[in-house]
Amino acid sequence: MKSFFKNVLANIVAILILCAVFFFFFIMTLVFSSMGGEKAVVKKNSILTINLKTHIIDSPTEEQNDLFNIKKQNKSVLIYEALEAINKAKTDDNIKGISIETDDLNAGITQIDDLRNAIEDFKKSGKFVYAYGNTVSQSSYYLGSVADKYYLNPSGMIELKGLATEVTFFKEFAEKYGIGIEVIRHGKFKSAVEPFLRNDISPENKEQLGTLLNDIWKNTSTRIAASRKIDTAQFRTVVDSLYGMIPEQSLKYRLADQLIQKTEYDNMIKSQLKLKEKDKLNKISLSKYISSYADENKSGDRVAVLYASGSINNGDEYNEIYSEKYIKYIKELQENNKVKAVVFRINSPGGSANASDGILFELQQLKKKKPLIVSFGDYAASGGYYIAMAADKIYSEPNTLTGSIGVFGIIPYFKDIANKNGIRSDIVSTNANSQYYSSLNGVTPYGVSLITRSVEGTYKRFVHFVTQNRKQSFEQIDSVGGGRVWSGTRAKEIGLVDELGTLNDAIKFAAQKAGLKSYHVASYPKEMSPFEQIFSDLNEEDISARVIKNKIGKANYEILQQITDKKLQSEVKMEMPYQIKIN
Which residue stretches, if any, does this entry annotate as coiled coil (predicted)? Predict the structure, then answer.
């Protein structure tokens, strides 16, 4: 009886603690929601500031990915909203200039390109743009170099080094520990599976990586050198020699204009604005500036921007691109009479072939009713490229990684390690191929041939839709396919995209195609509140997965999934082999 009361009391305490936790999250959500809802006031002589708290995202769903990272405190801003803010600031009399104050910019390469373009346009107003840095990453300097003047801390550094990639291989590791991996792929450039097949980089992968890195670096380095008025040959020497790492060298070789402390930088801006020493320098962040006018112009016809960011999967979750969820979004846009055109913004390296196919079909139905324009972000490769094949027109950024028209499947098994440790199995079945795959014994020869047929069939279906959309023959697409990844610039040259342009360009064209003179832009999916995000997928497996992802990093977590997630093992994949970031 005594232990019974103990158990009852323990359960009551556990329930009370759980209720307290839920209540705490509920109250904090209400507090954050009310704080976020405040409309900022733009004071006279204000400076629009892009700083360390600026987290530029491509899609509202990207907020979910960082939810379980308790270190995340920064307010996220959609790239479209950021560009609109800079454009509005150009004619806002209260905004006197822009200050770029970020050492490690949290944004993708195409997003930085777009921000740079918007700031270059802002400069036409005659307002100043200044930048300040301490320990400056390459991506931050790429953005900051657009400024009229670049100021560096006297003890600071600029990590200007060019681009490189490191490919890790697991073949010997798998063999050493008795892990078998059956790989089936179409495309000699489909290098997503190379780490499991080889101990070194293939000539094909080395070729495509070299081309990609050089394309991207040519675009970015040319723009930096032009903004800083540095000769191309000299700029290469500066980068090769890592002169930016030494502040005096940064000054000597014109990477920076002056070495000063942050307080001196702020005082310099105050002097520019003719403020007195006692006057406060009014800096306003992108997020606060956006909130100052966020509710304006929300009536009338709409151009909907449907954001698709992350890996493509089967299922109904909010974060990333889950087919069931996106099919619902697409159907809603198809039936919404206020939406006159749709821009599908893709920022995805691909994923499940089955999920990609379902999304493509629904987009094809949408296209029958409304203009459908596609805009590419950092990535639109493999399955990310496949789902674009319903578009009336495709816009890509110059530095977008796209193409990767190829298919693969990975099937791990653990026969050797099991046998070494005294584990074996016998099979009893009703049919010839009831057990064509086993985690202990691998895939039967017939199973391999069957999956190979599936991979080949998926590749042919992939190329078929590309030939229809791009109006090229199977042979033409196959010659630039084979899993090869291209930069947006090259993709335009070989006909995989229609135009090089931004999300804003795609929106303007969509409005024009729909015959709209007046419209507003509506973002989908709608951003979830913190409360909804916390409890949308509240189960033990999802929570543990997000904790692990934040601990080991997204890239390492995806490798772990390939080996451990049964859903991924059973799928034919359309996925890009790697990601490239300007760090």
Answer: none
Rg, Å, the chain Cα set: 26
* Residues present in the chain in total: 583
* Catalytic choice (348, 382, 404, 487): 382
The C-alpha atoms of residue 489 and residue 380 are separated, in whole angstroms, by: 13
- In this prediction, residue 111 carries a pLDDT of 93
Sign for the CA dihedral angle at 171, 173, 175, 179 comes to negative
193-215 per-residue burial string, b: 16 or more CB within 10 A, e: under 16: bbbbebeebeebbeebbeebbeb
Q: Mean of the pLDDT values across residues 96-101?
A: 97
Q: Which of 90, 127, 190, 340 is catalytic?
A: 190
* Least confident among 19-33, 36-50, 514-528: 19-33
- Of the residues 291, 321, 345, which one is the last residue of a structural domain? 291
Residue 39 known to be catalytic: no
Rounded to 5 degrees, what angle do the CA atoms 421, 423, 429 make? 160
Condensed to tens digits (0 to 9), the pLDDT of residues 239-282 reads 999 999 999 999 999 999 999 999 999 999 999 999 988 889 99
Of the residues 242, 264, 291, the one at which a domain ends: 291
Co-location of 236 and 308 in the same domain: no
**Tally of domains within the chain:** 2
**pTM for the full predicted model:** 0.80
Query: Does the annotation count 439 as an active-site position?
Result: no
Token pair in block for residue 402: 């796209």
State the residue range of the domain holding 326: 302-414+459-575
Same domain, 284 and 308: no
Which of 562, 186, 182 lies closest to 407 in space, CA to CA?
186
Of the candidates 383, 366, 359, 387, the residue with the CA atom closest to the CA atom of residue 375: 387
